[in-house]
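STRUCTURE:
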């Protein structure tokens, strides 16, 4: 065969192969999902995060035409789950429920190979949930102002409980301490249930507690609500002012959850996933979560990416200033 004809034939074969490869990739993206989706949750079965994820997975599966299977991977402040997802192929078949703990873990439990602003595609922030600052009735404190004034005049006299070092309740109180210039004693527990039980028994005097967990105890009078940590008041507690409107503008310390995947998810996959998640959030799912005190969002990928970056930076400053170490 003449050299030029051989070269032409080889070139045509290479171009044809490349076209088939690209067509295959385009088809795979266009038909996403082509197999069951793994949704990684950094929590054990049965808790609030797991329940949220399972309800979401059931509805997403109906919309996407493939099962969405929950993969529980608790441990290391969510870093184990995140590392698994970061290593996955960026084809949209391995996703994770990203949450506020991912942003704080970047500073509390740093891993050089894991960066939440670099190694993930953030699709949407689905929800946010506030914490309520409560005190035991035995303190005699009935307002946020009285609480701050007492803590300033009596440094170290009040002890506050949390579910552990680096948890949302701990960080919310440390942020308040820094903003208000007060001194409190931190009593970390191995989980929220024990912390709440001792708080109800009067063993500790103050705590930032999730809205859904605190509601029955506010209604029964076993705890006194002083402020809520979100930027807006909760519809479930309309008479409870925010910390921000009580002299600390810009104060915000909320739990939140979203959907993220490995870096490099194809835009077509991100668009379809985003659209499907928003349909779920705007269906019956919304009322179920709002009844628990959640605020349903559904932000754009760009908004969620910016929020993630801002949360990493904000909590890094709080953690470093307070000298907080992970358990």
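SEQUENCE:
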């Amino acid at each position: 065969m003449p050299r030029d004809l051989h070269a032409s034939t080889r070139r045509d074969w290479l171009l044809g192969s490349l076209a088939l490869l690209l067509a295959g990739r385009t088809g795979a993206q266009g038909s996403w999902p082509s197999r069951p989706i793994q949704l990684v949750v950094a929590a054990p079965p049965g808790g609030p995060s797991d329940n949220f994820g399972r309800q979401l997975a059931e509805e997403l599966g109906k919309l996407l035409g493939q099962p969405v299977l929950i993969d529980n991977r608790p441990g290391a402040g969510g870093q184990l789950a995140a590392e698994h997802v970061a290593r996955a192929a960026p084809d949209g078949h391995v996703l994770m429920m990203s949450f506020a703990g991912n942003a704080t873990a970047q500073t509390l439990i740093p891993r050089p190979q894991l960066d939440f602003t670099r190694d993930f595609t953030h699709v949407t922030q689905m929800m946010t949930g506030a914490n309520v600052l409560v005190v035991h009735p035995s303190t005699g404190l009935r307002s946020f102002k009285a609480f701050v004034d007492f803590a300033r005049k009596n440094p170290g006299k009040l002890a506050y409980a949390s579910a552990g070092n680096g948890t949302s309740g701990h960080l919310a109180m440390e942020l308040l301490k820094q903003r208000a210039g007060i001194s409190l004693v931190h009593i970390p527990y191995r989980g929220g249930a024990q912390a709440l039980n001792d708080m109800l028994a009067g063993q500790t005097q103050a705590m930032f507690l999730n809205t859904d967990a605190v509601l029955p105890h506010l209604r029964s009078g076993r705890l006194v609500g002083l402020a809520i940590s979100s930027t807006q008041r909760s519809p479930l507690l309309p008479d409870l002012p925010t910390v921000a409107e009580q002299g600390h503008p810009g104060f915000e310390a909320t739990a939140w959850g979203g959907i993220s995947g490995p870096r490099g998810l194809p835009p077509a996959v991100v668009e379809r996933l985003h659209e499907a998640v928003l349909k779920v959030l705007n269906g019956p799912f919304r009322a179920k979560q709002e009844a628990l005190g959640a605020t349903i969002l559904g932000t754009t990928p760009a908004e969620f990416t910016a929020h993630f970056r801002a949360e990493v930076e904000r909590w890094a400053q709080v953690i470093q200033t307070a000298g907080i170490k992970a358990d």
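REMARK: Residues 130-246 form a domain with the D-Maltodextrin-Binding Protein; domain 2 fold (CATH 3.40.190.10).
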